[in-house]
Amino acid sequence: MIASSPAAPGAAATRAAGAAVSRIVLIAVGGFVLFLSLYPLGWLLWGSFQTAAPFAVEKGAFTLANYARAYADPLLAKTAVNTVVFALGQMAVAIGLGTALGWVVMRTDTPGRRWFEFLILALFLMPLILAVVAWTMLLSPQIGLVNRLAMAAFGLSSPPFDVYSLGGMIFVQGLYLTPLAFLIVGPAFVALDAGLEESARVSGASQWQVFGRVTLPLALPAIYSAAILLFVIGIESFDIPQMLGANKGLYTYTSLIYYEILGRFPANYGGATALALALLIFAFLCVYLYRRLTRHAERFQTIKGKSYRPGVIALGRWRWALSAGCWSFFVLAVFLPLAILFVGSLMPYYGEFSLAMVERMSWVNYERIGRHPTLLAGVRNSFLLAAVAGAACVLIAAVIAYIAGRTQLKGRGLVEGIAMLPISFPGTVLGVALLWAYIGVPLPIYGTVLILAIAYITRYLPIGLRTVSGGMLQIGSELEEASRTAGAPWLATFRRVMLPLLKPSLMAAWVLLFMIFFRELPMSLLLSARGNPVLSVVMFDYYQSGEMGPLAAVAMCVLIGVIAVVVVAHRLIRPRAELMH
Amino acid sequence: MVGFVNGMHGAVRMLAAAVSLAVAVAGFGTQAQDDRAKYEAAKKEGKLLLYSGRSVEQIQQIVQAFEAKYPGIKVDHFRADLSQVIQRYETEAGAGRPSADVLDLVERRSQALAQKNLATPYKSPLLKDYANDLVAPDGQWTNYAMNLVSFAWNTSKVKPGEEPKTLTDLLDPKWQGRMGFQDPVQGGGSQIWVITLAGVWGEGPWADYMKKLGQQKPKYGAYMQVQNMLTAGEVDVMIAAYPNFLQPTIDKGAPVKWANVDPMVRTFFSLTLAKKPESPKAAELFIDYLLSKDGQDLLAKINQLPIREEAWPPAYQSLKGAKYVAQDWRLEDSKPDFWREKVREYFGSR
After folding, report:
1. What's the pLDDT at A6?
2. Which residues pair with B106 in a beta bridge?
3. What DSSP string describes A349-378?
4. For strand B142-154 and strand B256-258, is the pairing parallel, antiparallel, or unpaired?
5. How many H-runs (helices) and E-runs (strands) does chain B carry?
6. Which domains, and CATH codes, for chain B?
7. Is B232 close to A350, i.e. CB distance below 8 A?
8. pLDDT, tens digit, for every residue of A531-561?
9. Cα–Cα distances in Å, from B221 out to A47, A109, A237, A241, B179?
């Protein structure tokens, strides 16, 4: 790295060299991101105009029929409405819960807040498949435990809850996306100017008025960021709508795409890609909206050249009420499904909970997973991929966020927009695109874990970007200018000023990406190396085989293992973190 | 051979019998030598890559048994949904990448690969024990086990005597909203079942039945998802259920029974030898193994329905002599769009 030299005789030359270096770095990273995103999308676009899939035996020819057929589907209009309602609903649930929890954990003296921070991560580690299974066992109208108890307790004639409904889909998905909202919005509550809150308080505003009029508006860029991301995720999500909605005909846009690929024989890649490309336009619109909402970036700049750490808010008696509220949330979202999961891991087959079942319970599923030939390799691969690719993704995101937010480079908005595109595709479709894109490349990419790293970064860079850029908007440009005026070259400024100030956002992004990568499924399924699998695929194998017992057993082991790692890491990191404050 | 011999006079018949015995004995000798030679060659290759759509446990058991019988051949496998297995294989083959040596599929998929010239023809010497046209219709693939399509019910939700006995019983209004069905719109065994019955019943009665079945508002999902709904009692009856998929959970205590229904639609599990296998001899050996007595017994042990009916486990005895109807490809291929539209019309609007 270039050492920062004092503003002395050679300063002008240093600065010129620094500017050149900065341009080269920025353009290189920006170009790399454009490549990551556009190269596979190009294959997708090409495939959508072909009569046969790339690399298929049949010779493909140019056609528009894929589009004509895909968009003439009578189901499309109904599906579009479902999809938007679902996406908005789950976004609202996740943003509401995530923002509330973010404020409680980051800013208040609510008892148990350290636990909450930790439990939110546990929530995120729960594989969606199992979350759905657990909630089915709780809220299914036929066998749901909660329904059965409620009917017995209140003498109801029909089950009060139905997990197989739009409401059920929104509830479950919103619950499990809450950590995402929390990790994006939470840091914004810490990274703000305490002086603003203090002025409000001195002027006689109540605790809640301060929150509503000052704190919340200051966190808006992060909230917008999370909302747009969650909306896009809602549009492209597949697992929960498929498992809870499709059996009643509650299709979403992604289910239609999925049916084109896996739901018909032979698969209609042309139709699927044609449908998927509509999502592109949609993603562009979302990014445009976000850029408009945060246009006057300086309004959100709250970290300036003075001490800014906001204090902990004493809530008085309220803190107990809040604590109780949070605990009940976590009992509902984490402990109840975990308990169900544990019971499920002891069942010899997927069945209703009953006394007869209790007699049949055993540890046999744990013995069975012990015999799995590649389970341990899968855990190792997943862990390494999540850690390393996650870190790489955060770094790239930081540079792109910087280009988009801080430089005057031409096309900076375009780079940000294009980097956002891959997440708007369902994983299955992007997986196919990546397969086409890299299978022919004569480098050791396809068939190795490298293609998974590329896939994860390509698809989830937007999440890193949203997490980091929300944080970056809050940092006033004066700190950077001060550094530059003092003669520090760009790289040093980026490294010594921006990165440390961004640290809460960067850490949040890394944790987030770690967890997303750790459980990523649809692309891994298509691209994972044979005999060198990742954990999510091993687990999905069990799911597809209908073996819910071993699946629950794996999930229990993984959750316990991860919790152990997090606890140890927490112990190791905590003292240092406190010293820094 | 047998049919040919029957039409002849006594002496000639005896002579023919003696000759065929001699041929068989000689054949047996060379057969054993061939086997050993093939094993040696396969051992030199040292490894086998298997793509399969079977369950995790089944693959593990098959692979373990094969490796135990043929030490020195290490089997790696890739497991996924059949659509993904095919997709991966086709793309890898198209891009000239190393891929599977042998693919464990269903007959319909094997046939599609053969049509695309993505299979190596192979006729196992063990075919002599089987009706050739059933097991290896033209050598492009080898059938080794059956899949039967029936229906099933949860015995803790449906009282004895109230269970459906015929396919018509499924139209009883009492089952409305209480049944599960592998989504036929998404293809798979249930779609094959629906279309095949059109050939059995004729289009008129068939359309009438299927329309009414759709109006029963079954719950739809992937096959294993629906089967789990059945064992858990989320649905009381499963349409188009496979006895050979249900039996393992029944053995573990699941309160489920399947029907011996008339007609029972039959499809095959099949093996395709890849177009450019890296380990061709090991792949042949694997196909031979699953056709051999050991292999067929192993399949029976893991509750499958091997081609060799004598090997069937006791639970399936009642199926022997059941009225099978083979999957009707000619019908499917004659107007694929028509069927797709019909299936969607009956079962797609929910």
Report:
1. 47
2. B269
3. SS----HHHHHH--SHHHHHHHT-TTHHHH
4. antiparallel
5. 14, 11
6. 47-145+268-314 (3.40.190.10), 147-266+319-347 (3.40.190.10)
7. yes
8. 678 998 888 888 888 888 999 999 899 888 8
9. 29, 47, 17, 11, 11
Minimum distance, in Å, between the CA of residue A513 and any CA atom of chain B: 26
Q: Which fold does the domain A74-363 belong to in CATH?
A: MetI-like fold (1.10.3720)
Q: Quick one: which of A310, A289, A410 has its CA closest to A27?
A: A410
Domain positions in chain A are 17-52+375-532, 74-363
Distance CA A424, CA A283 (A): 6
DSSP type of residue A3: P
Q: Give the pLDDT confidence of A495-544 residue by residue, as tens digits.
A: 888 888 888 788 888 888 988 898 888 889 888 877 678 998 888 888 88
A575 touches chain B (CB under 8 A): no
Would you call B149 helix, strand, or coil by DSSP?
strand
Here the tokens at position A159 are: 């089950």
B287 near B124, Cβ under 8 Å? Answer: yes
Domain A17-52+375-532, what fold?
Answer: MetI-like fold (1.10.3720)
Number of Cβ atoms within 10 Å of the Cβ of B163: 17
- Tell whether the model's pLDDT for residue A447 goes beyond 50: yes
**Alpha-carbon gap, residue A41 to B347, rounded angstroms:** 34
Residue A535 and residue A385 in contact, taking contact as beta carbons nearer than 8 Å: no
Asked if the model's pLDDT at residue A290 lies above 80, the reply is no
Nearest to B350 among A248, A350, A548 (CB): A248
B234 touches chain A (CB under 8 A): yes
Cis amide linkage into residue A74, ω under 30° from 0: no
Model ipTM value: 0.82
For residues A451 and A527, the answer to whether their CB atoms sit within 8 Å is: yes
pLDDT digits (tens, 9 = 90+) for B145-163: 999 999 999 999 999 999 9
The CA radius of gyration of chain A, in Å to the nearest whole number, is 25
Name the one residue in this structure whose structure tokens are 């891994």. A524
From A517, A518, A516, A534, select the one nearest A526 (Cα to Cα): A534
Q: Matching CATH topology for A17-52+375-532 and A74-363? A: yes
Q: Which of residues 94-153 of A touch B (CB under 8 A)?
A: 136, 140, 142-143
In sequence order, what are the beta bridge partners of A245? none
Taking an 8 Å cut-off on Cβ atoms, the answer to whether A544 and B118 are in contact is no
> In the structure encoding, which two tokens stand for residue A79, read together?
């599906």
Query: Over A513-574, what HEC string results?
Result: HHHHHHHCCHHHHHHCECCECCHHHHHHHHHHCCCHHHHHHHHHHHHHHHHHHHHHHHHHHH
- Measured between beta carbons, which residues in chain A are less than 8 angstroms from residue B254? 349, 351
**Residue appearing with tokens 């249930």:** B190
B298: left (phi over 0), alpha (psi -120 to 50) or beta: alpha
Contact state of B233 with A352 under an 8 Å Cβ cutoff: yes
DSSP state of A303: B
Q: How many CB atoms lie within 10 A of CB A72?
A: 8
| Share above pLDDT 70 across residues of chain A, in percent, rounded to a whole number | 90
Residues 6 or more apart in contact with residue A504 via CB below 8 angstroms: A187, A190, A191, A471
Cis peptide before B263 (omega within 30 of 0): yes
Contact A249 B77 (CB under 8 A): no
Residue from A297, A345, A337 nearest A557 by CA: A345
Give phi and psi for B73, each to the nearest 5: -115, 115
- The C-alpha atoms of residue B19 and residue B16 are separated, in whole angstroms, by 5
